[in-house]
Amino acid sequence: MSKLTFERPIIQRINAGLPSKYGMPRRLEPLSQIDGVSIESLLQEFGSPLFILSEQTIRKTYREAYRAFSSRYPKVQFSWSYKTNYLNAVCNIFHQEGAWAEVVSGFEFQKALANGVPGELIIFNGPDKSREDLKMAIQHQSLIHIDHFDELYDVIHLSKEMEERPKVAIRVNLDTGIYPLWDRFGFNFENGEAGDALTRIMSSERLDLVGLHTHIGTYMLSTDAYRIAATKLASLAVKLERKYGHLIQYIDMGGGFASKNTLKGAYYPGTDTAPSFDDFAEAITSALMSSDIKPDHLPMLILETGRALIDDAGYLAGTVLATKRLSDGRRATIIDAGVNLLFTSFWYDHDIRPVAPVSDQSEDTTIFGPLCMNIDVIRSNMMFPLLKKGDRFVVRRVGAYNMTQWMQFITFRPTVILLDKEGKPHVIRKKESLETFNSQELTPDHLKDFDL
Amino acid sequence: MKVKVLIKQLEWFGVAVSNSYAQVFFSDNKGFGIALLLVTFIDLFVGLSGILAVSAAMLTAKVLGFEETLIRKGFYGFNALLVGIGLGIYFEPSQILFLLVLLSGILSVFLSVTLEGVLGKYGLPFLSLPFILIFWMFRLAARQFADLGLSERGVYVLNELYTLGGKPLIEFYEWVQHLGMPESFHSYFLSLGAIFFQQTLLAGLVAALGLLIYSRIAFMLSLVGFYIAYLFYSILGIPFSEVAFSYIGFNYILTAIALGGYFIIPSRSSYIQLLLIIPLAVLMTVSLQQVLDPLYLPVHSFPFNVVTLITLYTLKFRVDNRAGLSTIFWQQNAPEKNLYSFNNFMRRFGKNSPIPIYLPFFGEWTVTQGHNGQYTHKDDWRHAWDFEIRDEEGRTYRNEGDYSSDYYCFDKNILAPAKGVVEKVVNEIEDNIIGTRNLEENWGNTVIIKHGEFLYSKLSHLKKGSIPVKPGDTVEKGQVVGKCGNSGNSPYPHLHFQIQASPYIGSSTIDYPISDVLVRYKGKEELQSNSNPPKNSVVSTLTAQPEMKKAFAFVVGETIRFKTFEGEEVWEVKRDYFLNKYLYCQRTKSKAYFKVDDLMLHFTHFEGKRKSLLYLFYLSAYKVSFGFTPGLKLKDTFPINQIFNPRRIFLQDFLAPFYEYLRAEYELEYPANNRGFSKKALVLKGAICKSSFGKTVETSRFEFVIDRGGIQSFEFERGSQNIKAVCECD
């Protein structure tokens, strides 16, 4: 019998929690491999911390989502939401699978163009579109989703100056029975603003109204909200046809599908509560198919879901920097990835696992990031095995938003690698260095020298 | 000016008369008709009598108001012609005779129509039965006519020829008569001439030459038929003289042409069958002669009529075509044309599907059991498909697959495969637990939809309570009629789809193709117009793009205008008596036939000037899909007689029943990039490649530019010739 590892004795209140239908809480299963590649070896090769993306998972998830919709509706198009993850490699995987691009700023627009997406396959969303951005979008015959009247006036002005006819849709916000009501983007349906905007567009005669767009919220756990939204948009399309004889060519239901991450404060884990693509697809397509739109005129259904397509494919692996015990006796584990890299830890209880099997014993633990800031808490309270300095951990489902919302704060942003279909790692974003930042900075001459 | 109008008005008559002559050899070739007409004039009075009978028949048919296309084809004339010639040969010319000829012409129309009615019910041609009946009638009646003298002119051919063409003709005739040739050749030519009651070598030679020019296959068949009979006579030792033989020998020639290539598509099998059929015809002739001789009636072409009709009738009752004898369904009046278009049709469509039936679902599904499947698609139910959805790993379910809801196809919308009326609905059978089957209610929840007479589709194993329609409801193509479930004999969720001829649950299936299916099978992707997807193929339906429909889904009554360097071309979309749709170019009188359904356009046939723009358009839009995936490629083949110069296929014609070395291939390529909703024009490019023994002979290229208004321009390039046509759309 080999010698057991020493574990420091502590006194702990029995806190098993209520048994769920599966019995008592189990220990955390370690996660040592991604697509058959050892995480430990990746960390050794590319350094710690490290973002790891799985191409296999991305493609699989995309196809599952596409299948869920295309087996229910004749014309389905996905559009990759750039803000969710605009690493070029990631975008191009989606484009290879057939997705268009959905962007919300001039920067993202240019990024999509640079990736080779034809202008007419770019959907331009969001409240912030400068005149220059709009000009660029009109020139490229992109689909401009108008967010507010000021933007609409801009587009109408531009349409008088420019040769190309702008292709526009309006973003509509509507009451789907959920709280909070997302009424800050687009034109409201219930108070008639959406109708006014459409009248405005139709009477301008200089814009091509090609679609209708809504985006009812984010991390939606209710499919019924989508059913209501699709029904209301369809009724708007029918009104347009009746009033102006105008057929819209697509309905864009936006995104907001929940991923399997667990929201803070949620009673059940996300893996159990998040509806599947099939659930969302059924709600949306059945609403459109049973609407008053004539079967011959069924518009294309565009989906801009980002989070649900990429979250599962992303992992953040790293190393334990230290452990300590807090004043109240709670255990604390300090890891080398903080809120600077895991922006989403502000709203998710992230699923953190040890990479190698350690002891069966778990303890109530707070997990801190490496930043010298009080807010840098990854998990404030979780049953976690007793990792030691140098042990590896991995955070699951971090593919969405983290690689776009991460902060360069205190330390550099790490390497991002992509495991291709054969499990071969490719660096798709290099770790930043001092030069990355210094190259952007200019120091006035009188500040170049100092004596200490 | 007036003369021109008059000529135009009489044009039908000329065509009808010449076709009446050609029809005797099943042809509608004008030159051949005129050659035969001249042959009959070897004997002036015979010739006159023939043309009089034909004219009488034509005028009768016209005055009574029969279908003009049939009159023009000589359909009502060839029997009158035979009667007229027969009477002219047998009787001395007199006023009475000409009156009788006139009457016989009129009678032949009546009898033709009557027999058409009687035999038409069985889908059989009336052939020369009217002639035989009328001629026998006159032969029997004539014995009572004192004023009608039997002609002896047949004996004094030279006298006749002298009056017709003087000395040179006599010399030519003599030269021909004494051409050195084997005895059998001699008999062959005499037999050919005897069809028109002409017992001269010259008549036979002209007829043979005409036959060769009209059809290589018919010419070959005439030799095959003749020699089989000739040998059979020799083997059996039936006594025959050359003259007597030639008076019945044409029966074998006509039988061989009719069954070897005219009513049956020429092929190796059609040639081989003659080895059996011709001897049967010989036996029948010999025995009929025994019956008719005491009545002083000649057998004429009676044996040919009987053998041809019973053979064609018998072939109708086969359940499959294992013998390779395909009867024609579209008569083009030449064995070559029939053969080329039949082969092409089989390659392109395989089966006729007058009412298109589409896939009954959205998205990509996999065939998990096809026709003659290993599990349940057997015997009466062998023409059915089972469909499921598979993921990239080939699994049909997620998780463990323990519940119906784990299966990808479960609860998916099932659609009406075509417009129709709901006949039967079963909606109350419980869905099975995975792995169990309900053999009591084998078909489970089912919808049966009627799409036309004897055409029903059945969708089975649907989810309990999911069917929103009821019997009597009209459903549109693509309307949701239920959801995929797991009821009946179904251990796990799948859709059972079959086409049947009767409206009952449990009816046996019929072999009917699915239209316009994008099939991925063994790594190849192909858009099949008429599809019977095999097991493990992944199938889906493309969605039609509105601009493609606008460009290529021609609507009857529509006019299409193109402007070229040479001027304006105007095409009308028309529909003929048989509901075939075609584009018609007034200027060149050209027709391009097409068939169009919700998703595809196919051109099927072209008639007219090959120099016309319409011909180039027919070549270029030969197969067009209204829906497409980026970079989709369509391939097809042309019937070679529609592409190659007739001189070029002369040799090929002889070989065609056995081997085609000429090929003409069509390819159309869709743009590789998606255009979204932009107004950018859609550019379709394609090529037509002619090859001989696999070597490319000529490649033509074409290009369509299509925008929201339909076709914008069309360009065709062949060698140095480049034609650009711009559409003048409204």
UniProtKB/TrEMBL annotation, chain A:
UniProt cofactor(s): pyridoxal 5'-phosphate
Keywords (A to Z) from UniProt: Pyridoxal phosphate
GO biological process entries: lysine biosynthetic process via diaminopimelate
CDD domains membership: PLPDE_III_MccE_like
Start and end residues of each Orn/DAP/Arg decarboxylase 2 N-terminal domain: 63-309
Signal peptide coordinates: none
Positions of modified residues (N6-(pyridoxal phosphate)lysine): K83
Repeat recorded as keyword: no
The keyword Amino-acid biosynthesis is annotated on this UniProt entry: no
GO MF assignments: diaminopimelate decarboxylase activity
Residues annotated as the enzyme's active site: C372 (proton donor)
Ranges of residues in domain Orn/DAP/Arg decarboxylase 2 C-terminal: 310-399
Transmembrane intervals: none
UniProt similarity note: Belongs to the Orn/Lys/Arg decarboxylase class-II family.
Protein name: Diaminopimelate decarboxylase
Species of provenance: Algoriphagus kandeliae
